[in-house]
Amino acid sequence: MAAAAAAAAVGGPQPPQAELPAPGPGLDKAATAAHLKAALSRPDNRAGAEELQALLERVLSAERPLAAAADGEEAAAAGGGGGAGAAEEEALEWCKCLLAGGGGYDEFCAAVRAYDPAALCGLVWTANFVAYRCRTCGISPCMSLCAECFHQGDHTGHDFNMFRSQAGGACDCGDSNVMRESGFCKRHQIKSSSNIPCVPKDLLMMSEFVLPRFIFCLIQYLREGYNEPADVPSEKDLNKVLQLLEPQISFLEDLTKMGGAMRSVLTQVLTNQQNYKDLTSGLGENACAKKSHEKYLIALKSSGLTYPEDKLVYGIQEPSAGTSTLAVQGFAGATGTLGQLDSSDEEDQDGSQGLGKRKRVKLSSSTKDQSIMDVLKHKSFLEELLFWTIKYEFPQKMVTFLLNMLPDQEYKVAFTKTFVQHYAFIMKTLKKSHESDTMSNRIVHISVQLFSNEELARQVTEECQLLDIMVTVLLYMMESCLIKSELQDEENSLHVVVNCGEALLKNNTYWPLVSDFINILSHQSVAKRFLEDHGLLVTWMNFVSFFQGMNLNKRELNEHVEFESQTYYAAFAAELEACAQPMWGLLSHCKVRETQEYTRNVVRYCLEALQDWFDAINFVDEPAPNQVTFHLPLHRYYAMFLSKAVKCQELDLDSVLPDQEMLMKLMIHPLQIQASLAEIHSNMWVRNGLQIKGQAMTYVQSHFCNSMIDPDIYLLQVCASRLDPDYFISSVFERFKVVDLLTMASQHQNTVLDAEHERSMLEGALTFLVILLSLRLHLGMSDDEILRAEMVAQLCMNDRTHSSLLDLIPENPNPKSGIIPGSYSFESVLSAVADFKAPVFEPGGSMQQGMYTPKAEVWDQEFDPVMVILRTVYRRDVQSAMDRYTAFLKQSGKFPGNPWPPYKKRTPLHPSYKGLMRLLHCKTLHIVLFTLLYKILMDHQNLSEHVLCMVLYLIELGLENSTEEDSDEEVSVCGPERCHDSWFPGSNLVSNMRHFINYVRVRVPETAPEVKRDSPASTSSDSLSSLQNSGTAQVFSLVAERRKKFQEIINRSSSEANQVVRPKTSSKWSAPGSAPQLTTAILEIKESILSLLIKLHHKLSGKQNSYYPPWLDDIEILIQPEIPKYNHGDGITAVERILLKAALQSRMNKRIIEEICRKVTPPVPPKKITAAEKKTLDKEERRQKARERQQKLLAEFASRQKSFMETAMDVDSPENDIPMEITTAEPQVSEAVYDCVICGQSGPSSEDRPTGLVVLLQASSVLGQCRDNIEPKKLPITEEEQIYPWDTCAAVHDVRLSLLQRYFKDSSCLLAVSIGWEGGVYVQTCGHTLHIDCHKSYMESLRNDQVLQGFSVDKGEFTCPLCRQFANSVLPCYPGSNVESNLWQRPSNKSIQDLIKEVEELQGRPGAFPVSISSETNLSKEMESVMKDIKNTTQKKYRDYSKTPGSPDNDFLFMYSVARTNLELELIHRGGNLCSGGASTAGKRSCLNQLFHVLALHMRLYSIDSEYNPWRKLTQLVEEVNSQQGNEEQQPEVPILYHDVTSLLLIQILMMPQPLRKDHFTCIVKVLFTLLYTQALVALSVKCNEEDRSAWKHTGALKKNTCDTEKSYEVLLSFVISELSKGKLYHEEGTQESAMVSPISWSPESMEKYLQDFCLPFLRITSLLQHHLFGEDLPSCQEEEEFSVLSSCLGLLPTFYQTEHPFISASCLDWPVPAFDIISQWCFEINSFTERHAEQGKALLIQEARWKLPHLLQLPENYNTIFQYYHRKTCSVCTKVPKDPAVCLVCGTFVCLKGLCCKQQSYCECVLHSQNCGAGTGIFLLINASVIIIIRGHRFCLWGSVYLDAHGEEDRDLRRGKPLYICKERYKVLEQQWISHTFDHINKRWGPHYNGL
């Protein structure tokens, strides 16, 4: 089919056919399309084809859109009015019509889709898309699935995680090359190709004709739009072109989504070379096409590429795939042909011109890379499309289109080859790009799809030289930023390294290329080709050597460095990514014996490269002083391949090792790094700034250590096992600069090290030796043992979470190696060594994660300090591990004191490395150990316990690894080994330990004490003769030894010895002029290592003769030497353990130890030293005492602090609170005394100097969230579930108020209800008091304090000066006693009638307040200011409910509602009832008493008109009933039965003068109870149906004549019913009957219960109030008895009331006036209202009083359900998917966090919602982060997460993407903090949000 189209196209552009009208708006597209399709279906379709061509030529003319872009008006004229956009639209419409062949385009799409053999998903996504990766199902580590395929497949129990795509990707479901088929989802499991019918020929016929023209048109646009200016084209232009092309590319993308059938047509079109040639060659007469072709050629040229027509110039022959003729040195010669680009770079490097020239010389070119770098020939649309895609820097749309085609296999291969062909060009574009980050991501987005597939990668490697291309391109890329290396020999160095300051490295621009390389090396077939190809290996080593020695550090000796360079980040990243990761990739294929050849190749070329490197830097034998580089990738390649060879391939190590001289060179630089680490930790590099410490840390850090320090130490171990041990040991001490310290003399001169650094450098050297000799990571440990050791080391430092363990344990960086985190072995080792500590909640509110902690037996047997030291980034971690170890020993009773690090048995050495142990048996080391033991014993300066510890460790290692069986005779030494023979006879530690050394000759400064003492001794013949006998006293110099050894080796290995020894270095050591004159002294020693150890034991234990050989008592010890008592302990234990081992190894040692111990009187050291020793002992004792004293003080301080914390600090929960100081005053004290926490004075609060309580005022809507059903609301997780707020307490109260306001007088409505359910003001205190004037000065000081606090002082916020609790106001304490004096308490015997009158009078009397408001005192001012604060705490909308704004009624309502809010909240904190009773915790901290005074003071300013005072209506019968009804136009007052009784209570009490008398209080309560009870009866009567009502009316009427009718509910109920029946209340129930009536039948019990439940809330609030006002305790009771207990407590129940028969609520009634009269009066008001509004009248009567406790929304078990629903949900306001979606946990509203889209008047949506939903408190779950944030007013804090993974840890930002499950305990705590309003106190990290959330 395509061929026919091509044939038609050959004709080139035809003159328009006569019969085809010009395409204009009038033309019927569908008809034309149908006509053409018919014409083309004929067997002879020549005419039709030409016709179609002509039509397309006109429709798709390339000049229109871009010309239009350039110049609007002309184009508009040309394009026929529509302008550019219209023309394109038109063209697209034509294409759609033509494709559909006259039918509808949508039908056509559907038809094509029917033929889709969808075996692959292939969904392409861009950055930030949420995808899944399952390691159990993946074959390639890059495998990923879209959410849909993942959830459709079965991955239960698999190791999967969710991740946010960084670069974009595509779904691999259905691709068996990348993942196992078991993981395919339901849609892609079926191999469905069999049952898909064949595509009908005519369906896609038109597509094959139309699409080539369409794609050519697109390419012409791209050519047109690219103007190659002199400089790099601005991104703006490119983006403009791309925007214009958006519809075209989208059209193509839609085509790819039609499925397989359409994709194969597209593949044909894109890869058909004939089509391409015909359309784009630019031959023929079409001027436009010509111009376009020219632009294409210019673009190629300017890209530094040549068009192959000029091929002959280069004389390139296509190289055959196998050969690879890269010159060894590499090749930047190619740079010459890069066009002007690079040479211009060259000129810029002023001054380094010579270097540039040398660079050119060194890197000669070969013919091959030319073709790779510079030649591109495009043969198909696909190739040119990719070219433009790169040129335009990978526009997202194009990338997506190219990737969407990948499910087509044929296309996949063609595209991959094209991609490889353009690889060099991609690199060049990337280097020039300004947006290299975005571009990198897009490149990887493509390449990871191509190279993850092993089959494909292998094919391209074979057919397109993929490896050659990649290596060459990488090398080429790095060559652009090389500089001369300054390592070693600055002047003559020929080595070049990358410059880490260049953008290329700093911005990781090389990352995409390297990542592709690592990706293809993970395929075995590809890696094998690489390892077999010698040329490639040479080139690659060349590439690696660019990084060898980069980022050189030079130690600053004088000034602090001015500018700390941060290039080290780039250097470490580059080595890890560009060198180490490819290395691990290659290593993963060298696992078996058959691969030995590969290792030999790598090792061979690696050694060659190293040799070249040593030559280039001019290295002889000494490293240059004061410089270090941490980057030696060549050394590390060499080391890792050696390790692999021995471990897996059974290679003979010696066969791949070089000669001794090379080994000596190899060890120098890694050793230099180890010494530098010690120097850095000793602060010797402090002038280089912090960054040098950063390097030292990064070098050992978990992600780098196994590519850096581990190979370095291994390489040193290999060198040590093959070199002369004396040479090696002396080299170590020389590198660490402590040679001069190793002398027996008490004073010495160190020419290379300051005294203050000596100690830590010596510790460093010894620690290094211990690590070198005990580490077995590469010397024989199996992978599981390594994993276990790493894990134990990390767990010993600190308890760890699962994820931090995964992060800290260096895994083999190559993903295909066995130890993948989370793999089976990881989990099994973890469960073997650690116990899981579940996440607990600490009282301070800090949330713990689930932690793993080492098991006891791990501490006992596996704790390995050496491994810990090796792996710690911070020195403090070593200390932490030791502290934990100490704690374990104390706790388990194994050792009480301060233990030393335990000695741990090692895994056996692999036989290849046996030579390493010779280090322990060389005289040099023994002399060092002997010297150090002696110096420690003599208390020389600069030695520490750590030094001793390491010395003993080395001795013990030597004893453990003693080689030959030690015979009891002295071993005779022969041969030239007699260099130190007078020191030690042989080289075996076991026999050398017992060798006595008598005299030593030392060189000391003339000032040293030894000199003076020595002169007489030399004259005495006695001592002289002994000198002669023992041979001359031994002089020992490490340096001389090392020189001699080195010389021998060099002479052996090379004849040109003359060039080796450089006098320059050796002169440095004698340095005669620099120091005071040295002289020789002879010291008498007469000790052996054994005797020194025994004396050390005495010294450590502080007792003479403390050591007694244990085997003398118990001979068994020698038979079974493993004695647990020696496993843990301090230095004394260590010495005992060593002596025991020495005795075990040889009978001679045993005998000598016994002998030494028999000499009871120890040899006396010189006198002076005794004094010194005594001094140190005294010092020790004094120190000990001081320490004890300090401990005691600290303990005392701690206990004090603890008791303070207990009294002052607990904010945790409302449970365990302490009483405020206030309540401590005893009743008989007349006035309460307060302590001011600022000035510390105590005293009463007075009018002129009032005291105040520290309070926090906050608006709260918690009450409004109560609902009336028990079932908590769930967070919606589907579209159907929605939460409607109409059943919340706040909504119900709102409705009620607005209903009242509709029908009744406003001022009266505002007295009938309470507000504050939403936005009510809650007052809480920490209980501390202060003088108000002190507080003012405290606030001043806070204001001037420049430190940023977490709160805003301008808003009056502060922290309590004593307990630091957050507060924002001070509540003045009312002068006078706190606990009311007995006078007020005494129950009076007045009748209720008298009391009622008194109450009325008192209420009428304005301001009968001790403080008259008229005289402004300080107290009254403060009272006013705090009232202002209270008002300002909440928003205006929450306090203005009146119809006339600013009316005093509003304030009145607000004030008594504040009291109501605080009482109701306290009730909720007590669990919603008062059963627990007691002066419960919330009470002790309560400030209600003070608050009441403030409110009462202000309420009394608004006296209610006595006319309207509800008290009248409650207590008097009003005669003139009708007068009210007279004036109809004025709205009536609210009937008393519609009043809220609790509100009435508060109004009555706050209207009374304070302090209130108890009997007045009781009187008010009694009167109100009658009203409440009547309301209950009315509500009951409305609730039941007609028959029930008539029955009750009847029974009640019968009982009316019995006694005590006023206290019988039946009688009252029947009266209420009969009264209300007079009105219309019960009428018109016919329709609504069923709805209103509850189906239950009313029994007397259920009615009694209803009445009690109705009254209970009032009783609870009243009892609380009484408790606060009169300080009475609340009784505790069962829930059933709550009513009776509270009513008797309130004095409603007559005291003589009998409790035998069942309790009846009516017995509490005490009617002030005859019951029936007052009830009928109340009912009359209702009747007159229901005349007109029966419905509303009924609604207002039924009050739902039973609110359940408030709860947050219930969350689903699994976080994924929330995430999947919300992360794609669109915002209801802006209908976009928010970047940071959040959901409110109180009401379930979905909001955009920080979204500018939903901002209103500078408030972002979350802040706005927190004000509307929680009056300033918002609790939001951030969907994308799984964490909860709290907004409180103007501050916010991250609260933490309530979702934890299987290991009990949070996953903030979902970085790990593991499944998360709800942690109910945490959620409960969150809810508790919300209800108790303690967010401010418990969470510490608050910050301002500036309304931006």
Protein architecture, described:
By secondary structure, this protein is an alpha+beta fold. It is 51% helix and 6% strand. The chain contains 79 helices and 28 strands. The chain has a 6-stranded antiparallel beta sheet. Strand 24 and strand 25 form a beta hairpin. Helix 10 packs antiparallel against helix 11 (235-256), helix 44 runs parallel beside helix 51 (1089-1101) and helix 45 runs parallel beside helix 53 (1131-1145).
The proportion of residues forming helix, as a percent range, comes to: 40-55%
Task: Report low-confidence residues grouped into runs of 5 or more.
Answer: 1-26, 62-84, 309-368, 814-819, 965-981, 1012-1033, 1053-1075, 1160-1172, 1207-1229, 1378-1384, 1407-1414, 1479-1483, ...
How would a crystallographer describe the biggest sheet? 6 strands, antiparallel
The total beta strand count reads 28
Strand content bin: 5-15%
Tell me, briefly, the overall form. flat
User: Quaternary arrangement of the chains shown?
Assistant: single chain
- Please give the alpha-carbon distance between the first and last residues: 60 Å
Radius of gyration: 46 Å
Structural class: alpha+beta
Strand order of the largest sheet: 22-21-23-24-25-28
**Structure annotation, total helices:** 79
Q: Which whole number gives the mean pLDDT? A: 78
